[in-house]
């Protein structure tokens, strides 16, 4: 008798809860899809931001290498490098503003991209080093180290 009673109770419980899975799926599936699409969109924006950071750093570095050129040639080299780096790296279309400032040995590159509702601004600055002065300074420091080593300090 106990088994038949348990079976009857189970049938009553299962009959009353047949639609629960449909209702749960109707709530959980759209939320899950929204979260997946939000993560994909966020990853695209993050990738674009990293590409812009790389473009500013590389272009400032290449511009600082052109120490013996005039500012117009340095400006063109920096602009060309930004275009090369970002040519195939951006995943979405965005309005890009380049701001390149060259003052003496200092170079500042600022990129600003406007996507739908977001504005990304990246900044990189470098100071050009004269290779002749750098080598002289290095040799001077090397001589000082060797002098101290010979003196037993």
| Strand numbers in spatial order across the main sheet | 1-2-3
Distance between the termini: 99 Å
CA radius of gyration is 32 Å
Structural class, please?
alpha+beta
Q: What portion of residues belong to β-strands?
A: 15-25%
Instruction: Please state the average pLDDT score.
Output: 83
Largest sheet: 3 strands, antiparallel
Number of helices: 4
Element string (H = helix, E = strand): HHHEEEH
**Percentage of helical residues?**
55-70%
Shape: elongated
Which oligomeric state applies?
single chain
Low-confidence stretches: none
Number of strands: 3
Q: Brief description of this entry?
A:
The chain is of the alpha+beta class and 153 residues long. Helices cover 63% and strands 18% of the residues.
Describe this structure in words.
This protein is an alpha+beta fold and 153 residues long. The protein has helices at residues 2-16, 20-65, 71-86, 131-150; strands spanning 95-103, 106-114, 119-127. β2 (106-114) and β3 (119-127) form a beta hairpin. The mean pLDDT is 83.
What's the SSE blueprint?
Layout: H1 2-16, H2 20-65, H3 71-86, E1 95-103, E2 106-114, E3 119-127, H4 131-150
Antiparallel strand pairs: 1-2, 2-3
Helix pairs in contact: 2-3
């Amino acid at each position: 008798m106990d088994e038949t009673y348990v079976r009857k109770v189970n049938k009553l419980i299962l009959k009353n809860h047949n639609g629960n899975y449909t209702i749960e799926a109707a709530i959980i599936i759209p939320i899950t899809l929204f979260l997946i699409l939000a993560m994909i969109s966020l990853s695209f924006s993050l990738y674009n931001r990293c590409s812009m950071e790389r473009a500013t750093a590389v272009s400032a570095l290449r511009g600082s290498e052109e120490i013996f050129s005039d500012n117009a040639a340095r400006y063109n080299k920096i602009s060309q490098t930004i275009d090369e780096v970002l040519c195939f790296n951006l995943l979405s279309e965005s309005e890009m503003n380049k701001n390149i400032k060259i003052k003496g040995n200092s170079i500042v590159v600022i990129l600003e991209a406007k996507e739908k509702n977001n504005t990304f601004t990246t900044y990189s600055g470098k100071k050009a080093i004269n290779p002749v002065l750098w080598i002289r300074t290095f040799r001077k420091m090397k001589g000082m180290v060797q002098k101290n080593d010979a003196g037993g300090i």
